[in-house]
Design a protein that fits this description.
388 residues, Rossmann fold, alpha/beta, 28% helix
Length: 388
C-alpha cells in the first residue's frame, strides 16, 4: 500500500520532495506531514503531524511507515545546514516508530571529501605517504557523514551517479548493502533516441560517445550498453601535459576509431559532474578539430557556478544535456546565457519509481514515461517534441 510512505523535504515547499510525493501517489501535502519548526535561537526542531487527541500511541504513530527524507542542494541554504536537518528529521522519524528511514539525496553530500590522513580499511591499504600527506590535518568527512546518518536512524541511502568508489564502498558497508547508486543511463539513452538532440543514424552509425578521461570510461561504456546502438563508436580522451600549466587533449589508443572518423558525426562527451568546465571545454575544442557535425556534453551533476557558465558557453559545445540532481540548474537566472543550449532531464519520477520498486509498491505506471524535460524557450530545439 502506498500509504506506507511518508515524504518530507529538509526545507518547506521543497519542489523535489513535493514531486517525489506526487509520483508515489500521496494525497496529503508534505507540509501537512511534518512541521519544520525553528526556535528563536535558530535550532531546528521538526515535528511529525500526528493525531493530537491520541494518547495511546505516543511515539508510535509512524509504525509501519517508510519515511523518505528528500535532500537536495539549494543556493540559499548550506549543505552543512541541510545535512544537520536530515539527521534531526531521521531521528524524529525513528523516535516516533518509523519502520525504515530512507535518505533520497540525488547529489550525495561530502562525496568529494572521500579521504583522510589515515588509511581506512582494506580499500585504502595501498595509499602511500604522499597521498596521506595531502590530507594531513583534514577529516575524512564522507565517512563522518555516513556514520552520522546511520546514528541518526537512516536505514538506506538512495543517490544518483556518485563518482567516488571509496564513498560507494564505505556507504555500502555502513548501510549493510542498502546503498543505492542510481546511474541515469536509462534516462539519457531514452532522450537521445526519442528526441532531436542528436541524429544517431542507422544503428548508431552517426553517433560517437566520448569519455573526457580514463575515469569517465565506465560511464561511457554503460551508456553504450543502454543505447543499444551496435554501430555507435566510443572514444577515450587522454590528457597530455606539455608544461606546468599547459595541458592538451588527444585520442587514447583505446578508442574504437581514429580522429578522421569524427567528420560529419554527432558527438556526445559524457561525464558525471562539472564544476569549472575547463577540462570539458578543452576536450570539446579538440574534438571540433575533427569537423564533426555536432559536439554535445552530457553531465549528471551540473554545478551552476559563474565560472562554469562562462566556460561552457564556448562555441566548441553545441548543447548541454544534464539532470536535476542540483535543482538550481533549472533556474533561468542560474542558467544565464547557457539557457540557449541547456536541456535538463528531471529525475524525480525516475527516482520515485525506483523507490517503489525497491519496497515492492510499483504498479507499472511509469514504465514508458519515467522522466520530465525542462528546456528554455531560448533553446532552438524548443518545444521538446515528446512533451506534446
Amino acid at each position: 500500500m502506498l500509504d506506507r510512505f511518508v515524504v518530507t523535504g529538509t526545507f518547506t515547499d521543497d519542489p523535489f520532495a513535493i514531486d517525489i510525493a506526487q509520483y508515489i501517489g500521496l494525497r496529503d501535502d508534505i507540509s501537512d506531514t511534518v512541521a519544520l519548526k525553528t526556535f528563536a535561537n535558530s535550532e531546528f526542531c521538526p515535528r511529525y503531524m500526528l493525531d493530537v487527541y491520541d494518547e495511546e500511541n505516543i511515539g508510535k504513530r509512524l509504525r509501519g511507515k517508510i519515511v523518505l527524507l528528500c535532500s537536495v542542494s539549494t543556493h540559499d541554504r548550506s549543505r552543512n545546514d541541510l545535512a544537520m536537518r536530515t539527521c534531526i528529521l531521521a531521528r524524529a522519524a525513528k523516535d516516533n516508530g518509523a519502520d525504515r528511514v530512507v535518505l533520497v539525496e540525488p547529489d550525495l553530500f561530502y562525496s568529494a571529501q572521500d579521504r583522510g590522513p589515515h588509511r581506512f580499511g582494506e580499500n585504502e591499504k595501498d595509499r602511500d605517504i604522499s597521498d596521506l600527506k595531502k590530507f594531513d590535518g583534514q577529516p575524512f568527512t564522507s565517512l563522518l557523514y555516513a556514520q552520522l546518518l546511520k546514528a541518526s536512524g537512516v536505514d538506506a541511502v538512495v543517490t544518483v551517479h556518485n563518482h567516488s568508489v571509496k564513498v560507494q564502498q564505505l556507504f555500502s558497508e555502513i548501510f549493510e548493502g542498502h546503498f543505492h547508486n542510481m546511474i541515469p543511463t536509462e534516462v539519457y539513452a531514452n532522450y537521445i533516441k526519442t528526441s532531436n538532440f542528436v541524429q544517431t543514424g542507422k544503428d548508431g552509425d552517426n553517433l560517437v560517445i566520448v569519455a573526457p578521461d580514463k575515469g569517465a570510461t565506465p560511464f561511457v561504456n554503460a551508456m553504450w550498453d543502454a543505447l543499444e546502438l551496435s554501430e555507435c563508436k566510443r572514444v577515450i580522451m587522454t590528457k597530455v601535459r606539455s608544461g606546468e600549466r599547459e595541458v592538451s587533449m588527444t585520442l587514447s589508443d583505446q578508442s574504437e576509431v581514429d580522429f578522421d572518423y569524427l567528420a560529419g558525426k554527432d558527438v556526445i562527451v559524457f561525464d558525471d559532474m562539472v564544476r569549472t568546465g575547463s577540462t570539458i571545454v578543452q576536450c570539446c575544442e579538440h574534438l571540433k578539430k575533427g569537423n564533426p557535425h555536432r559536439v554535445c556534453f552530457g553531465v549528471t551533476h551540473f554545478h551552476s557556478s559563474p565560472e562554469a557558465r562562462e566556460k561552457l558557453n564556448s562555441h566548441s559545445i553545441d548543447e548541454i544535456l544534464t539532470t536535476s540532481t542540483l535543482p538550481d540548474v533549472m533556474n533561468r537566472d542560474c542558467q544565464g546565457r547557457l539557457r540557449r543550449k541547456l536541456t535538463v532531464l528531471k529525475l524525480a519520477k525516475w527516482m520515485a519509481r525506483y523507490v517503489m520498486q525497491v519496497y515492492g509498491e510499483y504498479d507499472g505506471r511509469f514504465d514508458k514515461n519515467f522522466y520530465k524535460v525542462d528546456m528554455s524557450s531560448k533553446n532552438p530545439r524548443w518545444p521538446p517534441p515528446h512533451l506534446y
